[in-house]
Amino acid sequence: MTGPATGGETSGAGAPAARARRELTYAVLLCLAGAGLALWASTRTWAVELAARPAPLPPVRAARTGAGLLPWLPALAVVGLAGGGAVLATRGVPRRLVGVLLLALGAAVAAGGGYGLVAGFGGTVSRQWPAFCLVGGLLAALGGGGVALRGGGWPAMGARYERRARPGVGPAAAEAAAAGPVAGRRTTEAWDALDRGEDPTAD
């Protein structure tokens, strides 16, 4: 009866940790995917202007990208990509602050995409790329909002290895304890004990 109960308690204790890791993964993916999509869309051609020239010369075609029309847009997207990595490297209150920053950045990127959808740029305008920026900004904002609300309790990157790095609980320490007192001592200490006529294997 004791065995199954212990297994159930272990499984129940591990469920919240597994859920926290999934939430962390989803939030980071949303931030990275949203910022990456916005950065890519901002480098596409949003408008094409034709400048007339005297006949018989053809008009001059001038392509304008989202980065050219809104220079701050790709910069915010790059910061959003870096913020997605910062979520993994932080924990607690600093991680929540990173989430607030990502939420604000995503909202700003979405606003830039929305402006591109309604702005009257000269020439032929392509509305699909601003729409992608809008979607990317919303995804990044959604991920940042999740980090700001729940990220304080999520595990940090490499947290599973922290216990192994603590003195006395790592695999090497466990093997030394299992091997007995001699394995836990330095070789010189064992020889000194023999010189004094002591048994180094005694507790």
TrEMBL record:
Keyword Kinase annotated: no
Keyword vocabulary terms for this entry: Membrane, Transmembrane, Transmembrane helix
Biased composition (Basic and acidic residues): 186-203
Residue numbers spanned by region Disordered: 174-203
Domain of life of the native organism: Bacteria
Keyword field contains Metal-binding: no
UniProt feature, compositional bias: Low complexity: 174-185
A Pfam short name: Trp_oprn_chp
Membrane-spanning intervals of the chain: 24-41, 69-90, 97-117, 129-149
Name of the protein this chain belongs to: Tryptophan-associated transmembrane protein (Trp_oprn_chp)
Organism in which the protein naturally occurs: Micromonospora carbonacea
